[in-house]
TrEMBL record:
Family: Belongs to the complex I subunit 6 family.
Assigned EC number: 7.1.1.-
Species the sequence originates in: Bathymodiolus thermophilus thioautotrophic gill symbiont
Superkingdom of this protein's organism: Bacteria
GO molecular function: NADH dehydrogenase (ubiquinone) activity; quinone binding
Compartments, record wording: Cell membrane
Catalytic activity from the UniProt record: a quinone + NADH + 5 H(+)(in) = a quinol + NAD(+) + 4 H(+)(out)
Name of the protein described by the UniProt record: NADH-quinone oxidoreductase subunit J
Membrane topology: Multi-pass membrane protein
Reported function: NDH-1 shuttles electrons from NADH, via FMN and iron-sulfur (Fe-S) centers, to quinones in the respiratory chain. Couples the redox reaction to proton translocation (for every two electrons transferred, four hydrogen ions are translocated across the cytoplasmic membrane), and thus conserves the redox energy in a proton gradient.
Length: 204
């Protein structure tokens, strides 16, 4: 067994262990931390496959931005635990059925008959000047340019839909009238009030 294979099994073990710990963790903050560990393990496996760009992107984007945002949102939400337990118990049978179906489908698709070394050869080693970013860009903007543009359009639609849902109530919408701000005068904004001062013998 080579050193690369040992690293692969070590990273795979921590990837699977952190994923299971994230699923079965009752604390939401700990679940996010386990998910961060699984991302680091997956990035390490990608580095072994000479996909350095994808590994760095996974850590910078998901661990550095998305997971931090999730952690802040989870800590800021005031969630009633009794309500969560009631909903969890209600959706548990359906969740188990869906989980079993997903595991069965993944076992059929990701089996050794489709992804074994007999079917797909091990990735070959490249020279030191090899750039996987160039190869990824060539594939992304040539063979997969239409799915890439479609994904960009879907993200744009999601952004517009989120903004529309936030501002769907006209009462919460705030607008700025530039003409009204420019035409304002000091006498309309400031009111001088004269207060009579009491004499020395009088109580204020």
């Amino acid at each position: 067994m080579t050193f690369d294979q040992i690293l692969f099994y070590v990273f795979s073990f921590w990837f699977i262990a952190s994923s299971l710990a994230m699923i079965f963790s009752r604390n939401a903050a700990k679940a996010v931390l386990f998910l961060i560990l699984s991302f680091f393990s997956a990035a390490s496996i990608w580095i072994l496959l000479e996909a350095e760009f994808l590994a760095i992107t996974l850590i910078l984007v998901y661990v550095g931005a998305v997971m931090v945002l999730f952690l802040f949102v989870i800590k800021m939400l005031n969630i009633d635990k009794s309500t969560l337990r009631a909903k969890f118990a209600g959706y548990l049978p359906l969740g188990l059925v869906v989980a079993i179906i997903i595991v069965a489908e993944m076992a059929l698709v990701l089996g050794s008959n489709q992804f074994g070394l007999e079917v797909i050869a091990a990735p070959e080693r490249h020279a030191a000047d090899y750039s996987n970013i160039t190869v990824l860009a060539m594939q992304l903007y040539t063979d997969y340019v239409y799915p890439f543009e479609l994904a960009a359009v879907l993200l744009l639609i999601a952004i517009i839909a989120a903004i529309t849902l936030v501002h769907r109530n006209e009462g919460n919408r705030k607008s700025q009238n530039i003409a009204e701000q420019v035409g304002v005068k000091a006498k309309d904004r400031v009111r001088l009030v004269s207060i009579a001062t009491p004499n020395k013998g009088e109580k204020s």
